[in-house]
Amino acid sequence: MPTITFSLKDLQHLVGKKISVEELQELAHYGKGDFEGYDKETDEAKIDFGDTNLPYLWSVEGVARLIKGILGLQKGIPEIKVSKGGYQVVVDKSVIKYRPYIACFAAKGKKMDDYLIKQMVQLQEKFCESYGRRRQKVSIGLYSYKRLKFPVHYKAIEPLSIEFVPLEFKAKMNLKEILAEHPKGRDYAWVLEGFDKYPVLMDDKNEVMSFVPIINSNFTGKLEIGDEDLFFEATGIDEEAVNLAASIFAYALHDRGFQIYSVEAKYPDKKVMMPNLKNESIQIKSEQIKHLFGLELKENEIKQLLEKSQYDFANWKVKIPVYRNDILHPYDIIEDIGIAYGFDKIKELPLTTFTHGSTFKLNEFIDKVREIIVGLGYQEILSAILANKELLYRKMNIKDFGTIEIDDYMSETYSVVRSWILPNLMEVFSKNKHVEFPQKIFEQGLVNSRKGDEIFESHRIAIASSHENANYTEMRQILDYIMKCFGLSCDIEEAEHDSFIEGRVGRAIVKGKKVAYLGEISPVVITNWGLEMPVVALELNLSELWEVMER
Amino acid sequence: MEIKKLAESLNPVERKVLKVLDNFDYFHDIMKATNLKDVEVSRALQWLQNKNVVELKEQQKEMVLLDENGLKYLKSGLPERKFLDAIERKTSVSEIAKKAGLSNEEIAISLGALKSKAAIEMEKGKELLVSITGNGKHLLKHGFPEEQFLREIFPKELSSLNEEEKSVLENLRKRKKIIRVELSKIINVELTETGKKLLKEKIEDDLIEKLSPSLVKASAWKGKKFRRFDVKINVPSIFGGRKQHYRRFLDEVRQKFVALGFKEMTGPIVETDFWDMDSLFMPQFHSAREIHQAYYVKEPKYGKLDEALVKRVKEAHENGYETGSKGWRYEFDVKRTHRHMLRTQGTASSARMLASKELQIPGKYFAISRCFRYDIIDATHLSDFFQTEGIVVEENLNFSHLKGLLKMFAEEFAETDQIKITPGYFPFTEPSAELHAKHPDLGWIELGGSGIFRPEVVKPLLGREMPVLAWGIGIDRIAMFKLGIRDIRQLFSHDLEFLRSAKIV
Questions:
Q1: CB 3.0 to 4.6 Å from A212: which of A199, A451, A509, B265, for a disulfide?
Q2: DSSP-derived 3-state class of residue B375
Q3: Domain A3-70 and domain A280-345 have a common topology
Q4: CB contact (8 A) between residue B432 and residue A137
Q5: pLDDT of A87 higher than 80
Q6: pTM score of the predicted model
Q7: Are B119 and B136 in contact, with CB atoms under 8 Å apart?
């Protein structure tokens, strides 16, 4: 979720009204934002915006626009005028295959200062990282056009065919070198993976402006304090997203007092005037408002609410500001009507229809088993389901019997889904060597295992007891007691299981189904866990036992 | 306590000790006088002190104690006595040794001791011959001063010895392991005022210490008194079997939902991308779907799905599927939707329920689901946790009902009816709202998220549009508040002492 920081004074200046911290806190909600704090000394306010599809709010200009609407200082879609610029970008057919879309504009009439550059960089970074899918979908560049010779060329070239000095570096490098050595090159090389040619922007003097979407040139590709003639470009693989970037920046700079100038894109087969600031429309119905919010609003009320939210409204047709790309369905508009109306003003209604509450029979059965084991003096444990093979197999002296493994785990400790529970209990013993004995513990929970392409999920319970005189009888008695509680009987057969002592491990069979292992834990396993005290244990498959009982 | 009650509360050992306190005030004297063991006396004195009957004072004193040989000689006599006993006129030393059963060392000692007392005379010939003197006969008859000394009560205070005893002591100390003098803690017992009064009280000896089946059967308890117990005394702590603190809490949450008319729903923890995200209209390019946000499963890579359902969801993503929505307008990856992963959100169960034949309308559903996220584990994050989510499906429900529902949750789970509902964002709901509640102790807290499922979610799964109120409650946070836990990892603690003593709420 993008968190943005800005100066409160600057926000007040852009809105044209004094806004207190408390007011800002309330107003942030209208943009689905959470106010995170205000630093009196630096005048810095922080808002966390939850909606990943509303990038226009990731700069103070967007926040100011939202607030002007809500406060009624601006009605409907804010006007923006684009003057004819006479600049041109030539899109070479070589780049179409790799990164086909570009949107540009020019802006002038104001001087860049330190704070404004920071705001623009903030918006650029948040946009490219989150909405721009780490620059793959969209990346953005800002330049002072005074240092450029038009027309600008957008094309794809051989990686070794050109050299330039990238931002923050001193030496010339070719494109391959940049990907290997420049920090940004390493961060974003993945976007160009598999490409035999790389996209670049060059001016008419063949001066590299940007190695797209990696890094700009140290010479032409950066904004400096005092610059007043800006050239904006966004490139990417999604035309809508590229245009959205241009419109959001055009509006932001326009709100700052810049005059926006058009740029023409000359594609191999067509010419396009940019920025494209055409507003789309969507039809709504008053029933939809009633349907979602239970509100019956008059047409003029709806109009007022929509204008607060920076929409234009006429004849049930809603015109959407170009910097919003998140409207998929009329309900997206209806939600904004509800937000502008105020969620707190909407009345609460109780649910009155009777419905029958219930849980699963299996869960009820599981709870009964847990209750029985607690009654025997056992402490219940709750462990993570994520585990590792060392814990599940190596320490337990057995082989992997089919594990769900995680593809790209963060930590080895949590790299697989547990296939049985007893190892968790052994871990508990190993962490409590100095705690009073006897230690009697159990855990009930989910385990997963796989056979080929099939995944088996089941509920199990593991029970373990550790003390000087722990022996097989103890576990056998518990198993028999559980069976007796449910009117079942079980047969025990001799079993082989290397976690247990040979000749002291049994397998319980209920109505022909093998449901449990029980026995004395092998000294090999006890030693593996750094323990000395004897342990006896059983692990019972409750899903299967339940199935047998239901039969 | 009244003196009478106090007298009745004394246990047999205390009674025994108390009775001798009139005459003895040193721990070892009391031991001797009562014939009780060290621990018994010390425990009894401790109890008596707790009852304010005595006051125990510890002193450091030099004490004389019998050593190994001292104890032996006390029992079987000193070697020099045995030596004297064995003399008949002029007897050779070897014969004496044989007769008296003395070792060479003891012979040497005896010779030295007896010579210094002029109790024997020696004659050197082929062999050393020994005869007894008058002094020797006197000693045999009246005893050695050393023998007398050994019969004293030990330990004995060094300072209590008279001059004569002191010289005997010095003699004995020169010999091997007879006497040792050491600095020891001496417990001096002093009767308090209560103690003095208690001694004057009649101390009943015939109190019943323990009720037994035979006493009951024979009515032998009748007419007798039970010894009074100090019911206020602290006793050693015990621990019992119990449910784990967080699971107990979740059990109650489940009971609450059932009581509120909710049916439980479920789903597997190894899910597909389809149920976890695609069916919830989260576009495949959404930032929450980066590889590093979820745990994808190595093998089996892909799961089975109802392909007709997949087709409808694909359309919803691409073009809105008959809902009037534009959709996300990208090419939906059908293979990817089959990809196996660990469930990241309980909402997957809600999606499964909407598409299930089991769904009842009107219906209320909840799930307490184990979920997994690619997160660094710290005091506020787990990669493996529980989520509580659910849906309410019914014609004609709208945001007002959602607000009513959220208020009910706030009352049930945060014990408050003061709630604030603010706009929020979830890819699968429109409108979306965050629930904040004013907790009586903690002030405003974020309690959960909610909304009404988008038509793009409902129609492909259910086959038609229908109001579906969806909600999720941050149950782990509430559990932490209730259980008084600050570190979320303690919900899954492996610390047995903590588990045995965790507060039950």
A1: A199
A2: coil
A3: yes
A4: no
A5: yes
A6: 0.82
A7: yes
Q: Extract the runs of DSSP E, i.e. beta strands, from B300-395.
A: 340-342, 363-372, 384-393
Task: Tell me the pLDDT tens digit for each residue of B282-334.
Answer: 999 876 676 568 899 999 999 999 999 999 999 999 999 999 999 999 999 99
CATH 3.30.930.10 matches A361-550: yes
Cβ contact (<8 Å) for A351 and B383? no
pLDDT by residue (tens digit) across B167-212? 888 888 888 888 888 887 778 888 999 888 888 888 777 889 899 9
Residue range A411-449, pLDDT digits in tens: 899 999 999 999 999 999 999 999 999 999 999 999 999
Instruction: Tell me the per-residue pLDDT of B398-417, one tens digit each, with 9 for 90 and over.
Output: 999 999 999 999 888 888 88
Residues of chain B with C-beta less than 8 angstroms from the C-beta of A351: 364, 392, 394, 397, 401, 404-405, 408
Residue pairs spanning A and B at CB distance below 8 A: 242
CATH number of A280-345: 3.30.56.10
Q: Which domains does chain B have, with CATH numbers?
A: 3-61+184-214 (1.10.10.10), 68-169 (1.10.10.10), 246-501 (3.30.930.10)
Q: Identify all chain B residues contacting A417, using CB atoms and an 8 Å cutoff.
A: 269-270, 342
Cβ within 8 Å, pair B295-A343: no
The Cβ of residue B464 has, within 10 Å, a number of other Cβ atoms equal to 8
Residues of A in contact with B262 (CB under 8 A): 355, 357
Tell me which of B423 and B442 has the higher pLDDT.
B423
Closest chain A residue to the Cα of B284, Cα to Cα:
A133
* B195 φ, ψ (degrees, to nearest 5): -60, -45
For every residue of A438-499, DSSP letters joined together read PEEEEEEEEEEEEETTEEEEEEEEEEEEESTT--HHHHHHHHHHHHHHTT---EEEE---TT
Contacts of B288 in chain A (CB under 8 A): 52
Chain B residues near residue A408 by CB distance under 8 angstroms: 291-292, 295-296
Name the CATH superfamily, with its identifier, for domain A82-274: Phenylalanyl-trna Synthetase, Chain B, domain 3 (3.50.40.10)
CB contact under 8 A, A294 and B320: no
Boundaries of every domain in chain A:
3-70, 82-274, 280-345, 361-550
Inter-chain touch A346–B270, beta carbons under 8 Å: no
